[in-house]
Amino acid sequence: MTLHKSHAVPGCTNGPPIDVQTWRRCRLLEAGFPAVLAEAVAVDPGFDLHALLQLVDRGCPPALAVRIVAPLPREVAP
Predict the structure, then answer these.
(1) Which 3 state secondary structure label does DSSP give 25?
(2) CA–CA dist 53, 65 (Å, integer)
(3) pLDDT given for residue 2 in this prediction
(4) Which of 33, 40, 42, 53 meets the CB 3.0–4.6 Å disulfide criterion with 25?
(5) Enclosing domain of residue 47
């Protein structure tokens, strides 16, 4: 189970999430991701949020975790 430090993050409440992207952004911010990076990852459903948080929990810097878990580019059909 992934445990995260509880940080007071502006715009993130203890109540139910407004939408999935907001929930993802809040979880990333709480885990220590910079705001710009958290926002970019939160809107991209190709990122496995749980994998990112597990890497950060194990000491991986957020930017490196994003590079490791980044989705592969999709090939465009001719």
Answers:
(1) helix
(2) 8
(3) 46
(4) 42
(5) 20-69
Residue 40 gets the label, from left (phi > 0), alpha (psi -120 to 50) or beta, of alpha
In a domain, 25, yes or no: yes
How many domains are contained in the chain? Answer: 1
In a domain, 78, yes or no: no
37 located within any domain: yes
The residue type at 67: R
pTM (two decimals): 0.76
Instruction: Provide the residue-wise pLDDT of the chain in tens; the chain has 78 residues.
Output: 444 444 566 667 666 667 899 999 999 999 999 999 999 999 999 999 999 999 999 999 999 999 999 988 877 666
Rounded Cα gap, residues 29 and 17, in angstroms: 14
Asked if 65 contacts 55 with a C-beta cutoff of 8 angstroms, the reply is: yes
